[in-house]
Design brief:
- This protein is of the alpha/beta class and 416 residues long.
- It folds into three domains: 87 residues; 210 residues, Rossmann fold (3-Layer(aba) Sandwich), CATH 3.40.50.300; 65 residues, Arc Repressor Mutant, subunit A (Orthogonal Bundle).
- Helix content is 55%, strand content 11%.
- The protein has 16 helices and eleven strands.
- The strands form two sheets. An eight-stranded mixed β-sheet has the order 3-2-4-5-1-6-7-8, sandwiched between helices. A three-stranded antiparallel β-sheet has the order 9-11-10.
Length: 416
């Protein structure tokens, strides 16, 4: 068995088992469809091409799953030994509470790191980097990813070959690419991303930042080491976005279970990993980094005592409680966050008339403002005709600030 981190071993064994069963299931389905297609008679023969086509697709899916099984088998080595090691690690974790308690003896329970980060988003944005997220199963990768995407902004696209039906439920189905091991779809989409990045370079060179406004994207790549193995475009996709993407509002989040450059398709290029990415380490990976790299046992115990809410951002400890973030309203939270950010951005360029109207709407949510009411409520609009006020209403609605109701002389505006 190759050297695999304990938390990575368990997940790779799960992936191996799923892929193995999926490959056999696809083979059985393919054989059944082929038998059905051959047995069709009479008018039913018109369905034969469709059934045979489905059989071929099922067979191809099984072939790809077998390829994944082979890759994981090479990584794990002897499957029986790997399973035995995984069980021993689990048993050790369950039967050594005394040893864990001994480690914490002598550690001040009130101790706080001096370089504690309260807001990881502010840190990431200040660094002007992408994010490499490292964590094991159950460390909170999905929750942190959702939180980060809600704050960074832009259209969210996810590349995840192992996504279950209920994964990424806060996104549109079309924005989750690669379900059911469809690496061809991921590879093709990443190729289009590279073309889009080049188009943005051309547009910005001709028209400046205004030419690429509204094209912001947040690109998430799950289990990036597997994508590198299966997709030719994965490694160049990461390298080119890492070095140029932020300038063109193309932010990427690559997720892996180890923080080596090889896991991110950057063989022999550690400089790119550390210069272009903020490394967020969760769970055991954060504690291992504190112990082995930072040589700080007190920090290790502080991370352990905080559970999922404590982790490392680069070499800095961070404490952020996201326990209530993913409780069924994640899509609303992200939508509201994006809407608030857009409103703040738009309000920066308002003139004094538009700003007064905006302030009125926010103080009277849901109420319709008429030109007559506005002319009577402030001397700011003295000398202005009702039609001129209604033109301002329409212009603000066109820019996404509120909405209009009615038409002609009855046209009004309200904040939404």
């Amino acid at each position: 068995m190759t050297a695999i981190h304990p938390s990575q071993l368990h997940q790779q064994l799960q992936m191996y088992t799923r892929a193995n069963w999926s490959s056999w299931g696809a083979l059985i389905v393919s054989c059944g469809l082929l038998s059905l297609g051959v047995s069709l008679q009479g008018k039913e023969r018109q369905y034969k091409p469709w059934i045979l086509g489905a059989a071929v697709i099922s067979l191809e899916t099984g072939r790809r799953q077998r390829h994944t099984v082979k890759q994981l088998s090479q990584s794990l080595g002897d499957i029986e030994s790997a399973s035995r090691a995984n069980f021993q690690l689990w048993a050790k974790a369950q039967t050594q509470p005394t040893a864990q308690l001994a480690l914490t003896v002598g550690i001040d329970a009130n101790w706080q790191p001096e370089n504690l980060i309260a807001d990881p988003i502010e840190y990431i944005q200040k660094k002007q980097k992408h994010v490499a997220l490292v964590g094991g199963t159950g460390d909170g990768k999905s929750t942190f990813t959702q939180f980060l995407s809600s704050k960074i902004g832009g259209r969210v696209i996810v590349y995840d070959s192992d996504a279950k039906p209920d994964d990424w439920s806060w996104l549109e189905q079309s924005d989750v690419i690669g379900r059911k091991g469809n690496f061809n779809a991921i590879d093709a989409a990443m190729g289009k991303d590279l073309e889009s990045l080049q188009d943005l370079v051309q547009l910005r060179g001709e028209g400046g930042d205004n030419a690429i406004a509204g094209r912001e994207r947040f690109l998430i790549a799950e289990e990036f080491p597997i994508l590198v193995e299966e997709c030719d475009n994965a490694a160049p996709w990461l390298k080119k976005h890492a070095k140029r993407g932020r300038r063109y509002k193309q932010f990427i989040l690559a997720i892996a279970q180890n923080d080596t450059a090889e896991n991110f398709g950057l063989q022999g290029d550690k400089d790119t990993l550390y210069s272009c990415f903020v490394l967020v380490r969760l769970g055991q990976f954060a504690r291992d980094h504190a112990r082995t790299k930072l040589k700080d046992p007190q920090l290790e115990q502080w991370l352990k005592a905080g559970g999922k809410k404590r982790f490392l951002v680069d070499d800095c400890p961070c404490e952020l409680d996201l326990s209530n973030w993913g409780t069924g309203t994640i899509k609303d939270k992200i939508t509201d966050s994006h809407r608030d950010d857009e409103a703040r951005s738009l309000s920066k360029d308002l003139n004094e008339y538009e700003q007064f109207i905006l302030n009125w709407g926010q103080q009277h949510p849901g109420e319709v403002l008429k030109a007559r009411i506005l002319l009577q409520s402030s001397r700011l609009f003295d000398g202005m005709q009702p039609d001129e006020v209604r033109i301002i209403f329409a212009a603000m609605a066109d820019r996404g600030l509120g909405e209009v109701e009615g038409s002609g002389d009855r046209l009004g505006w309200k904040w939404s």
